[in-house]
Amino acid sequence: MTAAPIVTRVGAATDTGLRRRLNEDAYLAEAPLFLVADGMGGHDAGERASAAVVAEFARLVGAPSLTVDEVRVSLRSARARVDAIASDGRGAGTTLTGVIVAEVAGVGYWLTVNVGDSRTYRFANGFLEQISVDHSVVQELIDAGELTVGDARGDSRRNEITRAIGAGSDGRPDYWMVPAAPGDRILVCSDGLSGEVGAERLRDILVEEADPQDAATRLVHEALLHGGRDNVTAIVVDALAVSGDHDDVFDTAPAGARRGEPDGDTRPRARSRGDS
Ligand code: MG
Predict the structure, then answer these.
(1) Helix axis angle, 212-225 relative to 199-208, nearest 10°?
(2) How far is the CA of 164 from the centre of ligand 1 (A)?
């Protein structure tokens, strides 16, 4: 049995929230996959879409690590499953984001994937950085200089996403390869967390709660305290040990997310985009 390139410890929590009837979020938090899916659609279609994507990726649980190609194949199968739900006559779709343990030349990496507006963050050396870039109308307005990050959280278009798995989207994912280091803490969440709780508060909780399950539970609770207007899900993954020599690593993370280059901006400025 090959050793895992990143030894992880994980906690996860989800809640329907205070306003919704169904919890359409789904998550997978078993090595090597740490993923959140936020479903959308009438009746129970959103719930079924997010569950279908998680079920597809759950087939890969237990592998020490995965490759981008393996993730792409699963994403294609996941999309077919969501499209089948949609063909019942009700539109169904889901976001997907998170990290998958990967390995390149003996070095452990966080293979980060994103479709939609759920988020993946890295907390390292006291700094919280958003790795994923939202596929959303407000993110496009921010990129165009027409909206500030501060105003975006209160914008009426904040729930409009520009890419999804299903829902008539081609679902093209973004991928990033982020070199892992011991002590890294990854936060994967639905917009029910990031839409209710600001980045500074997220960071404070990640500092205060050493145990990843305590951190995930507290983050979800915090979203409820802020109104709980949406389903809310959080996964917290700690890297306990990482294989490899980190002196010469391949890094596609946003510049600000690189180790040793902390600044106060949690918004990524660079991305590499893959397709499935
Ligand atoms: Mg949501």
Answers:
(1) 140
(2) 12
Q: How far is the CA of 104 from the centre of ligand 1 (A)?
A: 33
In whole angstroms, how far apart are CA 227 and each of 17, 46, 116, 267?
8, 22, 22, 24
Find where tokens 């904040």 sit: 158
pLDDT one-digit tens code per residue, 64-110: 999 999 999 999 999 999 999 976 666 899 999 999 999 999 999 99
- Compute, in angstroms, the gap from residue 94 CA to the centroid of ligand 1: 9
Element (H, E) at 11: strand 6-15
For residue 97, the cross-strand partners are 36, 114
91 CA distance to ligand 1 centroid (A)? 16
> 229-247 as b/e, with b when 16 or more CB fall inside 10 Å?
ebbbbbbbbbbeebbbeee
Q: Which helix (H) or strand (E) holds 85?
A: helix 68-86
For residue 190, the CA-to-ligand 1 centroid distance in Å is 6
